[in-house]
Amino acid sequence: MSTEKVVTRFAPSPTGFMHIGGVRTALFAYLWARKNSGTFILRIEDTDKEREVAGSIDHIQQALAWLGIEWDFGPKKPGPFGSCIQSERLAIYKEFAEKLAAAGHAYPDPYTPAEVDAFRKQSEAAKKPFLFRDFRPATFGAWDGKQTLRLKVPEIKRFKWHDAVRGDLEAGEEALDDFVLMKADGYPTYNFAHIIDDHLMGVTHVMRGDEFISSTPRFLSLYQALGFTPPIFVTLPPILRDDRTKKLGKRDGAKDVLEYRIEGYLPEAMANFLAFIGWNPGTEEEVFTMKELINRFEIEKIHKAGGAYNEEKLAWFNRQHLLRLSDESFAEHAATFLPDSISTTSAIFSRLLPVMRDKITLFNEISALFHPEGELHFVTTSPDYPADRLLWKKNPSRETAGKHLTEARKLLAGMPAGEFDGNPTEAADKIKAAVFPYAEANGRGDVLWPLRVALTGQDKSPDPFMSAAILGQQESLRRIDLALTKLSAS
RNA sequence: GGCCCUAUCGUCUAACGGUUAGGACGGAGGCUUCUCAAGCCUUAAAUCGGGGUUCGAUUCCCCGUAGGGUCACCA
């Protein structure tokens, strides 16, 4: 490896939302740049004004920022090479176009689109692949800067090149053609602009999907005509749909990356998951922070074959990262999913923290916990439930339920009030110490089921000790009294 | 169709000529247990097919097969 500073870029076109395919490409480019203390550039390729979607540039930046992918140069951070938005660099492309035209490496296309189309049909009828260069005019005039400009392929030959992932690649002459450099609307094509920019921005490693392999000979022709040295090509494997039948695309359910934030995924989990589609450190470790990914990332370990997107594995990664979160950052992430009545600074929130941490895989599950049918609904609402719910299904006797509830009430009432306060996990332990021996002696289910329902009113909930710890002594006793009333009323 | 690329459990993958083909997700079973999760343990499950090269092929070569990509004044 040379001592040259590594520069990578992510170069999306602002034509809609970002999905995980695009983000994965950005991630790999970012990881490689950071690993080498290099530069990562976010370049906006907005040379097709027809397809541009308003707000996309903003959206792209939000998606990358959410994932923790930071760019050194980007839309509002121009570099020594100027703007990172191609539509603001038109003068640069024009200058290179003029140079190529003057050197005889490019020529104005004399045909109308209809005429070119006729040529194409002609070739099809003859069952030959259409190549514009077969119809190249014998002589051409100077380029006036307004016509369509095409590259005059400098050399018709079989191209061989090296790809850092795919190895030695080659393609025949049929892959070469006089492609368009400057469009009639004055904008450069992608094929032209990206090569100029990669060169001017000092990009050393071009990371992109395998859909660009087949156009590489044309890029190489242009590098040759311009006298530029090509960068290192790093072809990334495609991300496949989960059934592996095709590449994951927007039409196949590829979601907006920011959707995942709304669903309560952690950005580090997403980055971890994406890194493992098409890359693997070669060990059995799987859970990595962004920092660790940067340390471990190696181009040599990028795969050739495509990998499928699997949301269940993503969820697992999320759970793993969630477990490693500090209470403080857990609270931050939880904030938007809590009911309005509970703030992350409230006392009740800190009492609920251990339960929430145990229960969820995705943060949006927190809202479900507080739903009227949810496990934590009892926290904010006094329970309302049919009396029969207090009866354990294996021994549905009102008499037993009432007897044990009365006993349990005594045990809870007998505890010093202070033992309910403080750390909820410790409080739950103390409550368990007070109640469990009795339950052990008289049947765990017979004692604990009615107690848990009395406290929570729910079929599914945290265990009775934790529930009592969350509610506090007074409220716990009040709810047991309520349950006893229910039992005797009917 | 031409050209290019790819191929290990259902899925993500390890193996860089020699392993009982390993791990993870998901599945199944179990433990735990007052409920629901979580957690822990166990388990089933793969080298696309056919030829070579080699003492020995998941690994190297060839031919099939299947899948993907690409053939724009889109990127």
Keywords:
RNA-binding, 19 helices, mainly alpha, three-stranded antiparallel β-sheet, 11 strands
3D structure, described in words:
- With 490 residues, the protein is mainly alpha-helical.
- Among the domains are: 89-236, Rossmann fold (3-Layer(aba) Sandwich); 327-380; 387-489, Arc Repressor Mutant, subunit A (Orthogonal Bundle), CATH 1.10.10.
- The protein is built from 19 helices and eleven strands.
- It has helices spanning 20-35, 56-67, 90-102, 113-125, 190-200, 216-226, 257-262, 267-275, 290-296, 311-323, 327-334, 347-359, 365-369, 377-380, 398-413, 424-442, 444-456, 464-471, 473-489; strands spanning 7-10, 39-42, 106-108, 149-151, 159-163, 167-171, 180-182, 205-209, 232-236, 239-240, 307-308.
- The longest helix has 19 residues, at 424-442.
- The protein starts with 6 loop residues before the first strand and ends with a helix.
- The mean pLDDT is 94.
How are the secondary structure elements laid out?
Blueprint: E1 7-10, H1 20-35, E2 39-42, H2 56-67, H3 90-102, E3 106-108, H4 113-125, E4 149-151, E5 159-163, E6 167-171, E7 180-182, H5 190-200, E8 205-209, H6 216-226, E9 232-236, E10 239-240, H7 257-262, H8 267-275, H9 290-296, E11 307-308, H10 311-323, H11 327-334, H12 347-359, H13 365-369, H14 377-380, H15 398-413, H16 424-442, H17 444-456, H18 464-471, H19 473-489
Parallel strand pairs: 1-2, 8-9, 10-11
Antiparallel strand pairs: 3-4, 4-7, 5-6
The protein binds one RNA strand of 75 nucleotides through strand 6, helix 5, strand 11, helix 10 and helix 12.
